[in-house]
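Practice set, problem 2.
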Amino acid sequence: MRHAFTLIELLVVIAIVAVLVGILLPALGQARATARGAVCLSQVRSLAIAQRLYADDNKGAFVDAGLAHGGIADLPNSWPVLLADYTENGIAIRSPVDRSPFWSVEEGGQFEGMGFTEALRRVRAGETSGLGELARWTSYGLNNYTTRSVAPSPDETFDNDRLIERPYATVQWLMMTFGETDASADFARTDHVHAEDWGGAPGGRIPLRASLESQINAHGGHAGDWSAKATYGYLDGHASIEKFEDVYKSYQKNRFDPRVAQ
């Protein structure tokens, strides 16, 4: 004679399943976050390798910034274009955590501007005028202290290997803001930040000021918090996911200005 489950037995089974799901879901979420972080680190390391190859061919010079905030400035000299020939799979790298709406429609975003592939084709064909607006090209950008065109001071640049005393402590790559607020939208489509401006924010508002240009919480935390986490790539080639407070404490103590980085 076959016996059916009683209502109490069924409720016990449902409760056990619910408990197991409650235990497993956070673990699965953490595993996915760890995997996304590993991909992001790999992408930044690939940028560091491409930059190293570029520097070897250019007497130690670093790649430069070439995109204005939200538009075109010097397209042929923007670092994604400069590094395009130094990577096997293209340089328009998109982090798996990047949810910016400024990616082109063709790339699954919401912006009607030109994507990197088409822009690169036009540059190589010598068509550098009348390009219109640009979409987001990459999740990553340059620390402007390591550039020529947007350095904090044209009289003091750190755009070459020989000018950097502590490459292991100096950030070159970071994650650009996703542009999810009106105040951060322009920086979502450029290729660099202006780190010299961050220290001018009062006290505890420094992370919030930085978050308008860089997605400092791409890998955890809240924008505007010192404990927010993102990926950073250094001039010696290593990359790591770090809290904002680990890379920037004040204008006098940070890992962006090569004069004080340590």
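Problem 2, part (b): a different protein.
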Amino acid sequence: MSDSLTRENLRQILVTEQLPAMPQSALSVLKLENDLAKVNINDLVRPIETDPGLAAQVLKFLNSSAFGFSSSISNIRQGIALVGIRIVKNFVLWKAVFSLIPKSKSGTFDVAVLWQDSLRRAMFARYLSQELKCGDAEMAFAGALLQDMSIPLLLKLKPAEYCPVLDALAKSDGERLSHLEQKTFGWDHADVGYVLGQQWKLPELLTHLISSHLEIESIVSNFKQQPETAVVCLSSLLPTVTKDTWDEQDTFRQYFSEIFPNNGRLVSLLFDKVDKEFESAAALLSLQTPKQSLFGYLD
């Protein structure tokens, strides 16, 4: 175990390091209620419109093919009325976090690849949550998208200690990153995600989703009580774009069948849906489409 990175001083390291701060415009939006009836819409519109870059991104999102409106949306207020406050809040959230994550490439790690994986996982979590017909599909999307957000920050803050772990992952035969982190440091990137969620004042449920995404054994067996957590945990088992094979396919199918018994075909349908919608969603984050589709990993 590393002397410089232990679970006991993890929080202190992250707090004392120069972590990027969440933009004030995003914090103002995130603290508002999800129910439009309980919110003064001006309190939501104002912080977005006073940040020209954010306002342009929100309008681009609202006019994307994700919604397919017949006429263009010209202002934030109109868009909120059409899609709802929760969707706009979550978009503001993940754009803010995306802007805070270092855009680095180091050795075997490329943050662009991480975001490709994360976006596919997020879309899968959203669609699976919709199939479950319970829980908050948009929160599941955000949780899956941000589940690995701590990895590039760790790489930037402690490259000498963390680079060898990522190099070992690239050379391993299907071992999980979290297992290597636990063996090396006594904590994993989900633990770091919890600290970051608190530091950035993320919604409590979202922080829970990020910090619990590795706990699939305990979560899936009780998925009806924590539907968002269950789908985010399942999404963490999806294949990475860096490999031609899917190391955790058997594990994924085992847990998927606990939620949807005798419905293995649903996996194919969900993967096909993610593949078809990925390109338009990736454009919002300036991401390339992976060379291999999710559907292509299926046996």
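Answer key, part (b): The chain has one domain: 7-22+103-297. The mean pLDDT is 85.
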